[in-house]
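Kindly inspect this chain:
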Amino acid sequence: MKKTLIALAAVAAVSASYAQVTLSGEFAYGYYSGTDSTKTSASGLGIDTALLNIKAGEDLGGGMRVDAAMSLNTSAGNGTVVGDNQSLTVTTPALSVSLLTYKGGDFTTGAAGGATWYGLDNRVLAARSWRDAIAVTVPLSAALSVSGAYLEPSNVIGEGTGTDGTTGQNLYSIGAKYSASGLVVQAAYLPYNSATSTDATKVSATRFGASYDMGVAKAGFGVQVVKLGGGSVLTETSIAASAPLGANFSVNGQFSSSNVNVVGTTLAGLAGTRTGWMLGAQYNLSKRTYAILNNATWTGASATATDANTSSLTALTLVHDF
């Protein structure tokens, strides 16, 4: 037994000399109750998140290094493991280049500070989607960086797909981010390829957001304006705030809206404004284990917004990070 342990330790030592590997993750289980716009209710216990993150890095010398990161999502609970965000990043003294397959978060929520556990994406805001991408980030100072990226069409992932032979739109992103003393300001412009003269395609997206952590509270906002091919404009906004109320307890909230200014008939049924809010409370049992209570309500377009198309959710979740 002792020889076996010595041999395993030797293997671990040799492996450590070639790569630095870290494991982390999150497990969340809770009770969710919701009512959709048709007044159909659903509720029950279940897994919210069961995520394993694996990161490995290597120093290449000369101020260069490479880092690989992958996430395994096992929350389906049926023995099926699904790959989540994946990336390979090469960092040099001047810039970093990342190869990504990821499911991006909603920009307005992230720019505002992402205060609540559940989001309003696919409720008030647009649904998240998978993309393959390559991104370059150049730090101009300790606080300021600029970036550029090429992103293949949404939900068309895998080697050999995305650039040609698909009906989706690929796009580019040019952005900048400033972060110092609790203040984060970011902006980006995203032109789309293959836009047509109908609102079924996008021409461009302009993004801007800022958040400020004052210590006693954090607040922020984000806005995204999307120009569509037929002349219509989709504007999404979010504001968020959070504050600690003692050593272990904190509260948070988010309000979001999505407005479609329609030109033509393609999106006529979506004209108007959708709005929603979400409130949350978090109690920390330790630095890595906490309970979260979330409550949210959101509406349909303003032209038809009545109690008949209002949706809501209430969720109590226990989370452990490791």
Q: What stands out?
A: Confidence is low (pLDDT under 50) at residues 1-17, 303-307. The radius of gyration is 22 Å. The chain has one domain: 20-321. The helical segments are 2-18, 107-112.
